[in-house]
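Reminder: ligand-aware prediction takes two inputs, not one.
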Amino acid sequence: MALQPAVQTQGLTKSYHRGQRPALDHLTLTVNRGEIFGYLGPNGAGKTTTIRMLLDLIRPTSGSASLLGLDAQHNSVEIHKRIGFLPGELNLWQNLTAKQAITYLHQLRGHDDSAMRYAHELAERLQLDLGKPIRSYSTGNKRKIGLVIAMMHKPELLILDEPTSGLDPLMQQIFNQLVTEVRSEGRTVFLSSHILSEVQAICERVAIIRDGKLQAVERVSDLTRVKFHQLTLTFRSPVSPDRIANIPGVSEIKTEGNVLHLRLSGDFDPLLRALDGQYIVEVRSQEPSLEETFLSYYGAANGSSAKKEVTQ
Ligand SMILES: Nc1ncnc2c1ncn2[C@@H]1O[C@H](COP(=O)(O)OP(=O)(O)OP(=O)(O)O)[C@@H](O)[C@H]1O
Ligand SMILES: [Mg+2]
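Here is what comes back for the chain with adenosine-5'-triphosphate:
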């Protein structure tokens, strides 16, 4: 028998207050086993709301969810035994040391000694000293304690709410290695983030939500294909925008004296050729945010979620 999907939701909806726009609006989504799946959206999009319903910490207004083929509400006890969860905000016993808290949870869960060994390995790799009282850890280090607790028993499915927020770039890399190992063991990771570039390196697919509505589910490779650059070119003397107006991929040209601002999709070559002979003092390129990449892909003007053809 084929394995059930890691996560499946059907019309999952949450309204915190009657009469207001739902925090999550009819989410229908499938996460396959063995994939690292990114759940992306800006602040307030509904990511944490979704995750709380998957874990049965709050109840949906309508719709349903299943994890590992088990109903999120009716089988929540069994689900909690089989998954690992990193909440957006970790509440732990402030006066215990990290080691005491981890040991206590380990005993409570009844996992074998290998989980405790792996917890120490994780702490070492994350450069986390387990000996201090929880109250004294910094935000980033608390996040690491949460990651150890979520990952130590090598669960089939990891649900991580903004796992890398507060982690420095080196730790983000170590985190990326850890989740890649999870995938290589055939296990599944569902992680939320509001930063596209953070998840690009590790996720195969991403779902993008905004205002509680699913906007798209994409392979990351397809999203990077539509990436563009916001360029600022400084010349030694003023340059007419006409020179580059018809260059493929160039749009939104603005001039300010010797400075040209423009947006470039695709390769740099046609633009640079058109500027041949001009003395370029400086080129600055800004990576678009998730929101910008996404809006350029799906169209911001009418707020429509209709998928546009990607023209390159
Ligand atoms: N307990 C609550 N009661 C009322 N409204 C809530 C509650 N929790 C969240 N909301 C609202 O639901 C919407 C979605 O919030 P949610 O926390 O799910 O977003 P998020 O995508 O996790 O955002 P962030 O990136 O800031 O963590 C927001 O408008 C938020 O104000
Ligand atoms: Mg959140």
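Confidence is low (pLDDT under 50) at residues 300-312. The CA atoms of residues 254 and 261 lie 5 Å apart. We will return to this case in the review session.
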